[in-house]
Each structure stands twice: as structure tokens, then as C-alpha cells.
Design brief:
26% strand; globular; 189 residues; alpha/beta; single chain; binds S-adenosylmethionine
Length: 189
């Protein structure tokens, strides 16, 4: 459960993660597009340089907001530069968390949250999912995906148990290239 306690994606890998070749297997239009609409309040948790955040900002458009959360300032700085170039920076709110902070600063009443390739880097997965679940609107969707090269099926299952015990309900498995992925919905309590 406590795998990879010290492994945090380095900044140089952040550059690789925004390579346009990634579009071939993990296109944001198909990965997150079905769940986003103009005006929504959404979060990209562990956003790095914003491979998903920038298309998400285009999808929620000017009336929406994308909260981009990371623990590395350099990732967020690079994300904001990229967002300015695409003219979507007005919709993006960067949020730098410290590893030792709780999650008090996370926004609430979220319509959608993306946790893509980040949960395996977080030591306390229960605490993370509790914080995410508390901040979702009733009916809000959480897309949880992990890289199948780094996270095995058992580890993914253990993380999904944390998600379920936080009050998130499984909706459907998702077929995303080189990933384990599940869509959850907040509809309990
Ligand atoms: C492998 S990258 C994935 C980036 C992005 N989700 C994507 O798919 O392109 C993981 C990111 O999560 C961030 N991260 C790791 N632990 C975190 C935590 N506890 N809270 C917020 N972000 C975290 C890392 O700094 C890194 O930018």
C-alpha cells in the first residue's frame, strides 16, 4: 500500500509527459472529453505541466475553472506558461501543495476530478481519496488512472479500495492506453 513512498516524478519527465506523441494513445478529447462541459468546476490533481489541464480548460471554457494541483512549483510554473500561450490561463487556478500539508486548500463542490498517474506517488492514499471525495458534488465524477508499467493490478485494486471506502462508487472501467483506469461517481452520503 505504501509503495514508492519517495518517488516523485522529476521535472524532466514532466517535459516528456507533454510530448504531442502522447496524443496517439492518451488523447484528452477521449480520456476526459466525455465528462466535461462549459462552466464546470474541475480539478487536475498531480497536473505536472498540464497535459490534461490545458485541454480541460478549453472544455470548461471561460465560464469554468480548472484547479491544477501539484507539489512541484516548477511543474506549475511551466504549466502556466503553456496555458498563457494557449490563452486559457484565465480558467486555470494553480495550487501548490506542500507534501506535509493536509488537503485543506483543495476547492470543493467539484464537478469532476482527474487523478492521472499520480496516486502511486502519494504515500497516504486513503487520506487523499477522503479529501477528494469530500470535495466532490453529489454526482461528480472522478477519473482515476495509473500507468500499468509502474503500478500492478493488485496495487491498483488496493487504491480503488481506498477510493470506495471514501464514499466514491465505481461507475465503469475505462480503456486507456497503458493504464489501469476506473471512473468513479460521488453519490453516497
Ligand atoms: C507522473 S506525473 C503525472 C502528470 C499528469 N497527471 C499527467 O498525466 O500528465 C505526477 C505528478 O504528480 C505530482 N504529485 C506527486 N505527489 C503529489 C501530491 N501528494 N500532491 C499533488 N501532486 C503530487 C508530481 O509532482 C507530478 O507532477
Amino acid at each position: 500500500m505504501e509503495q514508492n513512498r519517495n518517488h516523485i516524478c522529476p521535472v524532466w519527465v514532466g517535459y516528456l509527459m507533454v510530448n504531442p506523441l502522447r496524443l496517439l494513445g492518451q488523447n484528452p478529447d477521449t480520456v476526459v472529453g466525455p465528462y466535461l462541459e462549459p462552466g464546470m468546476k474541475v480539478m487536475d490533481f498531480g497536473c505536472a505541466m498540464g497535459y490534461f489541464s490545458i485541454p480541460m480548460a478549453q472544455m470548461v471554457s471561460k465560464s469554468g475553472t480548472v484547479y491544477c494541483v501539484d507539489i512541484q512549483e516548477k511543474m506549475l510554473a511551466r504549466l502556466m506558461k503553456r496555458a498563457e500561450r494557449k490563452n486559457v490561463h484565465h480558467m486555470i487556478k494553480p495550487l501548490l501543495l506542500s507534501e506535509n500539508d493536509g488537503y485543506n486548500e483543495l476547492p470543493d463542490q467539484l464537478d469532476f476530478a482527474l487523478l492521472f498517474a499520480v496516486v502511486h506517488e502519494v504515500p497516504d492514499k486513503k487520506k487523499l481519496f477522503n479529501a477528494i471525495s469530500e470535495r466532490m458534488k453529489e454526482g461528480g465524477k472522478v477519473l482515476f488512472a495509473e500507468p500499468s508499467g509502474h503500478v500492478n493490478a493488485i496495487q491498483f485494486e488496493e487504491s480503488m479500495e481506498c477510493a470506495e471506502s471514501s464514499g466514491l462508487k465505481k461507475v465503469t472501467m475505462l480503456n486507456i492506453y497503458r493504464s489501469h483506469a476506473m471512473l468513479f461517481c460521488k453519490n453516497g452520503k
